[in-house]
Write a structure and sequence with these properties.
The structure is a single chain. This protein has helices at residues 9-12, 38-43, 47-50; strands spanning 52-58, 61-74, 77-84, 97-105, 108-113, 119-120, 128-129, 144-146, 151-154, 160-166, 182-185, 204-206, 211-213, 219-220, 229-236, 251-254, 261-263, 297-304, 307-308, 314-315, 317-323, 326-335, 343-344, 352-360. The protein is mainly beta. Strand 16 (251-254) and strand 17 form a beta hairpin. The longest helix has 6 residues, at 38-43. It is globular and about 60 Å long.
Length: 362
């Protein structure tokens, strides 16, 4: 993971005044609490366009970066997580977090220091914390305003802050199946993806977008696979701001013969074993690379069967997991080598999948 210059912002920040945009500017309208498309989320109001990731600098110095992850909590309320050095996987120092609570006020969102009795993933926005420890050890007083397309502000020392909203994409998003790959869920924009490789035909195709929506139970491939192999999966969690924890865009990828890799909207959170990228209930991701809801994301998984290394030592079966281009698990032991199907979980959320393929290696 690339490291950036760590700024005195982490220790010196006392008051930050920040401005940024959201679209549309009109006051949000009330609508359903879960949305499986960007169009539906935007129609419900301004919460969706305001939430997301922001990148910027302090004092105009390219070495002094900050990242901000704004989480929509429902009821026109938000929590902003300020990260020293930049966004996860793109400069964040891995420890410094400052939390602000925000609420829409006409055409802007106003943030102030998060206070009170807060718990990790609490339901009421005024009790919600995006960090397990509240306040985090690196917490500093901070205020902010989000409006008009830019993030601008000042630290307590008077250093200027300038930032803007960014839409990050995985470097493997849309990766074409290599020669010899078995295409399990083809991605053809404008055409309904074939479910011929899958046992459950109840999943809903969206021809215009070339993906399927989880529906009518979990699914598995008809064919079983043995390693070694490389698996590519693209998924998108819905926008469900009023939900918390396991109710927020829940699904799971069960690689052939392997253990569940959690699919969940864990954007802006600490990154736990039962959150996005975690090996369910056992291994947390090295860094939480979850993008905002309704962003297409990727898992690239490499499975190595049990065997011996160059020195003749026995090695258990294991796999490596790359989330949105960043290695979050380098080597997860699985015990003995196993044969199995690829399974995708239905957990009652309209999670979308597309462009799934596997390459079997000798």
């Amino acid at each position: 993971m690339r490291r950036s210059y760590v700024t005195p912002w982490a220790a010196a920040l006392a008051v930050v005044m920040i401005a940024a945009s959201f679209v549309p500017a009109a006051a949000p309208k009330k609508g359903p609490s879960v949305h499986a498309s960007v169009a539906a989320a935007r129609k419900a109001g301004g919460d969706f366009d305001l939430q997301g990731e922001y990148e910027g600098t302090i004092g105009g110095d390219a070495r002094k970066k900050i990242g901000v992850q704004v989480i929509a909590l429902g009821g026109d309320q938000f929590q902003a997580v300020f990260l020293a050095g930049g966004l996860p996987g793109a400069g964040w120092d891995g420890k410094t977090k400052v939390i602000c609570q925000g609420k829409l006020d006409g055409e802007k969102a106003v943030f102030e220091p998060a206070r009170g009795n807060r718990k990790y993933l609490a339901g009421p926005p005024e009790q919600f914390s995006a960090t397990r420890e509240f306040p985090p050890k690196t917490q500093r007083p901070c205020t902010a305003v989000i409006e008009a397309g830019r993030l601008t502000g000042k630290t307590a020392s008077g250093a200027a802050i300038a930032a803007k909203k960014v839409m990050r994409k995985s470097p493997t998003l849309g990766a074409k199946p290599p020669t010899g790959a078995k295409v399990l869920l083809p991605y053809r924009p404008g055409k309904a993806p074939s479910l011929a490789a899958w046992a459950n035909q109840k999943w809903k195709p969206v021809p215009a977008e070339g993906h399927v929506i989880v529906s009518g139970g979990s699914n598995r491939t008809k064919e079983q696979f043995e390693g070694p192999w490389v698996l590519h999966v693209e998924f998108m969690t819905p926008f469900r701001p009023t939900a918390r924890g396991q109710g927020r865009g829940n699904s799971g990828v069960f690689p052939p013969g392997g253990r569940e890799i959690q699919v969940l909207d864990s954007f802006g959170l600490d990154g736990m074993p039962n959150e996005a990228g975690g090996i369910y209930k056992s291994h947390p991701p090295k860094v939480n690379m979850c993008l905002p809801p309704l962003s297409w994301q990727t898992y690239d998984i490499t499975y190595t069967p049990a065997g011996t290394d160059a020195e003749g030592k026995k090695q258990p079966a294991c796999y490596k997991v790359v989330h949105n281009g960043v290695t979050i698990h380098a080597k997860i032991p699985l015990g003995r080598s196993r044969r199995g199907s690829l399974n995708l979980q239905d957990h009652g959320n309209p999670v979308c999948y597309r462009n799934i393929w596997i390459v079997l290696k000798k």
